[in-house]
Amino acid sequence: QVKNKAPAEVQITAEQLLREAKERELELLPPPPQQKITDVEELNDYKLRKRKTFEDNIRKNRTVISNWIKYAQWEESLKEIQRARSIYERALDVDYRNITLWLKYAEMEMKNRQVNHARNIWDRAITTLPRVNQFWYKYTYMEEMLGNVAGSRQVFERWMEWQPEEQAWHSYINFELRYKEVDRARSIYERYILFRALAVLVLVHPDVKNWIKYARFEEKHSYFAHARKVYERAVEFFGEEHMDEHLYVAFAKFEENQKEFERVRVIYKYALDRIPKQDAQNLFKNYTIFEKKFGDRRGIEDIIVSKRRFQYEEEVKANPHNYDAWFDYLRLVESDMDAETVREVYERAIANVPPIQEKRHWKRYIYLWINYALYEELEAKASGDNSGQVYQACLELLPHKKFTFAKMWLLYAQFEIRQKNLPLARRALGTSIGKCPKNKLFKGYIELELQLREFDRCRKLYEKFLEFAPENCTSWIKFAELETILGDIDRARAIYELAIGQPRLDMPEVLWKSYIDFEIEQEEYEKTRNLYRRLLQRTQHVKVWISLAQFELSAGQEERLPRCRQIYEEANKAMRSCEEKEERVMLLESWRSFEDEFGTDATKERIDKLMPEKIKKRRKLQAEDGSDAGWEEYYDYIFPEDTANQPNLKLLAMAKLWKKQQQESEAAAMDPDKDIDESQT
Predict the structure, then answer these.
(1) Which of 10, 429, 464, 473 is the most buried (most CB within 10 A)?
(2) What structural domains and CATH numbers belong to the chain?
(3) CB under 8 Å to 524, separation ≥6 — which residues?
(4) pTM of this prediction exceeds 0.90
(5) Is residue 284 a contact partner of residue 272, using CB atoms and an 8 Å limit?
(6) Selection from 216, 217, 223, 226 nearest residue 249 by Cα
(7) Cα angle: 252, vertex 254, 260; to 5 degrees
């Protein structure tokens, strides 16, 4: 019994046990003693024991082929060829599909120079397992090593009947070439190509490398016409459905070696026009290298253009609504391509209509149509019908009920005028105003009629324009200016009166200023004064008062200075109730500049008394949520007239004066010497 069951101080791990066992080599068995055979009986006894061992192993597991092979090799080592042959035959009865077994059997026969036996084994092997290429390679190699060329050729022919893989055909071709049988090699190539062609038709899997190898074979043996014919047959066979860039690159390089540069260029261009761009990278690269080596400047430029075209094609394919990419692409093709190609690209571009009917999505798209129409008119030098059709198609496409583009209507009208077709231009602009009236359309139509000196049409258009947008001050002003130019002052004045009577105006100050300037031009000063008074009834803006004062000053009459001063007086009284003190200061500064130039000392002194005092103040700020946001300083103006009317302000001024006197008396008490010195001086 174990009394102390506590763990030992030093613990032993499984790893230590294994390491110790290995170091002591406990499991290694000593090698068997070497046995020396001295007579025939001992040898026979040894053979009997070994054979019994091998037979026992085979009997235990017949399917382990390695046991059979070891048994046969042992018999072979004893020069018992017949016994080894018997063992191999027994093994083949067990598993005739084992490739190693056939190889070992045939190698044994060849090692022992049993050629006919080896041929017999190879024949049986290729008959039993015809798809094992190793048997065929070994068989043909043995016949060739024996110098039996006809026999080797016969084996190759039997092999080719099974339609083996590509390498087998090339081995047969190389075999014939080793014996300088070029015609035989050519016939093998022909059979091989026809076989592969049938495979292509069945499997729809183009394989051009075999055609290229055939052509290079012909080129290597200086049959250049045959090589060219092979390439041409390959191009014809694959057609345009299964075009491969490698075939055309090889064809072009062959022609380049033959110094047929024009043929090379034609091959490259033919392939680039038909093979998808993403599959022709290598082709394009080789074409670029060729042009740099043998081409002129024009050829190199064509290559660069083709490359850029490919890039743009990829961009527009990835995003058809990327109109900037279309613009770049069109700029490229316009600079280098023929008119039909350019038209085709334009048609593809304008086919990508924005999916959403919102104007912001159409702003870039509409320029595709504009550029297309201008190209047809200017660059293509086509008849005017093409460009006109482009404009009409675009205008039919636009959803005018939701939005329109005045630019398109105006460009179409200008195009028709250039074609000397004025009625169509007027009809287009009239249709635009009827379908989708816009300020820009009216202005463009009016400008057209002005250039044609059709003033009655201009009047009608202005009337329609003002019915459509009565708040547009610019239109009223332009209409009145037209009547002024035509010398109809009363109509112009009536237009201004109608304008200022409108309940809504976008820029009323501009309209009033234009009306006032109109009356001043006509030297109707009384009417101008009345206009100012009417305007002042609507607004008391300081600029109106200053403008009225300056008008009175520039009227050129004898009473201009008193009138101007009176205007300033009225303005000052009116502005007393104004909350914007800066405007009142602006008025007084304008008044002072007037008095400085035209006034007397008394008037100057009076205006100086009216000028306000600028003081700094503080006010409390509040944030948006109502919390305290601190204090800010600002400048305020205190006007003397307001101070006189407010006793509180007068009391404040007296308090400030008393405080100032107090400060002066305290300073004198602190420094009496200074007071004595001042009294002595």
Answers:
(1) 429
(2) 206-295 (1.25.40)
(3) none
(4) no
(5) yes
(6) 216
(7) 75
